[in-house]
Design goal:
The chain is built from 4 helices and 7 strands; from the N terminus they run E-H-H-E-E-E-H-E-H-E-E. It has 148 residues and is an alpha+beta fold. The chain starts with a strand and ends with a strand.
Length: 148
């Protein structure tokens, strides 16, 4: 099931997923990562976080955090625990985020994928995202999709 984030119940698992699934793929320096870690609580309070969980009261097996900017859905973070990958949780999270954005007038979606994250690139491309730009400074690909 997909539900909204409950900070007291979910944030420890979300932070663990960020540290184990997202940070290792990042090309940021140690000081940049420390700044991101410091900013995470505030960042999580901006936008929307959806949780994938086997049942309503269950702990998260994955999450997506996103923000809406005008007609743009910006996927900020998506992570699924290794033991829950390839079970369609990521697809469900993205479908819910995209439906949420469509209901609020968004027409396109964007996500940044670290270079070297081949699985992430394949995942988003299967969902209809296409590579529009490579950001050499941040070593990441900017992908976009038209929502309908």
């Amino acid at each position: 099931m997909i539900r909204y984030r409950r900070p007291k119940q979910d944030d420890a698992v979300i932070m663990h997923l960020i540290e184990t699934q997202l940070v290792p793929l990042s090309h940021m320096t140690k000081s940049q990562l420390e700044q991101v870690r410091k900013d995470l609580p505030g960042r999580m309070n901006r936008g929307v976080t959806l949780i994938a969980s086997p049942y309503y009261e269950g702990d998260p097996v994955g999450f997506v955090h996103f923000m809406l900017h005008g007609d743009l859905l910006y996927i900020d973070m998506l992570a699924v625990a290794p033991e829950s990958q390839r079970k369609r949780w990521g697809n469900l999270l993205m479908a819910h985020a995209e439906r949420f954005a469509l209901s609020r007038g968004c027409k396109r979606s964007k996500v940044m994928v670290d270079s070297g994250n081949a699985n992430g690139m394949i995942f988003y491309q299967k969902l209809g995202y296409f590579d529009i730009k490579y950001h050499a400074k941040n070593q990441c690909h900017e992908l976009e999709k038209r929502l309908s």
